[in-house]
């Protein structure tokens, strides 16, 4: 081996490898992955990514399935992650202009409007909404740490009720792809 090849291999071995980007499973979970919440395992059957044009995503909705049971894990991104495990609720409204500031849920709980916004949404997998379009979302808070969410897109409402779950109690597992 020549001296120049040896010097070249020494120089190559001293080069630093580019840093590996740390994965963020809260944001990078995809359809087919598994989410474990409250000791219950779900397969992600759909994902909605909410964003404002020109800005990074700030909310994710994972549609979860465990056998015949369906749920939704909402993740709101701020300084920390706020996670809500929700169940779908049947009901109907005709227009986004009919959304009240207080909701009475069968006389058992009253929810008060906390915030309302309009976002763009990307959809993957099996969801209730069309991707690359605008979606409106209302967030209500109620008694005993319960929350209620209404979402509307192009004449269709989806209602969900749930409670906060600590992000540390959620386990994200990559699917076998």
Helix % is under 10%
Strand order of the largest sheet: 2-3-4-5-10-9-8-7
- List low-confidence stretches: none
Rg of Cα set: 22 Å
Taking the alpha carbons of the first and last residues, their distance comes to 43 Å
**Major sheet size, sense and barrel closure:** 8 strands, antiparallel, barrel
Query: Would you tell me the structural class of the helices and strands?
Result: mainly beta
Order of helices and strands: HHEEEEEEEEEEE
Strand segment tally: 11
- Overall average pLDDT: 89
Q: What is the molecular shape?
A: elongated
Number of helices: 2
- In terms of DSSP E residues, the strand content is over 45%
Key phrases:
177 residues; mainly beta; 8-stranded antiparallel β-barrel; 2 helices; 11 strands; 53% strand; elongated
How would you portray this structure in words?
The structure is a single chain. By secondary structure, the chain is mainly beta. The protein has 2 helices and 11 strands; from the N terminus they run ααβββββββββββ. It has helices at residues 3-14, 25-28, and strands at residues 34-37, 40-51, 59-66, 69-77, 81-89, 102-105, 109-125, 133-141, 146-153, 156-165, 170-173. A hairpin with a 3-residue loop joins β6 (102-105) and β7.
């Amino acid at each position: 081996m020549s001296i120049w090849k040896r010097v070249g291999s020494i120089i190559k071995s001293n080069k630093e490898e580019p840093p590996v980007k740390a994965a963020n499973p809260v944001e990078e979970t995809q359809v087919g992955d598994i989410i474990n919440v409250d000791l219950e395992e779900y397969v992600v059957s759909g994902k909605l990514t909410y964003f404002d044009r020109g800005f990074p995503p700030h909310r994710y909705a994972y549609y979860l399935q465990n056998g015949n049971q369906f749920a939704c894990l909402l993740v709101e991104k701020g300084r920390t992650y706020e996670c809500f495990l929700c169940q779908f609720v049947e009901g109907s409204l005709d227009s986004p202009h009919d959304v009240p500031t207080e909701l009475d849920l069968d006389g058992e709980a009253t929810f008060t409007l906390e915030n309302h916004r309009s976002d763009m949404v990307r959809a993957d997998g099996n969801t209730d909404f069309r991707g690359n379009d605008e979606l409106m979302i209302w967030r209500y808070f109620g008694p005993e740490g319960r929350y209620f969410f209404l979402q509307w897109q192009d004449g269709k409402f989806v209602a969900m009720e749930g409670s906060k779950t600590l992000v540390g109690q959620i386990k994200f597992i990559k699917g076998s792809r």
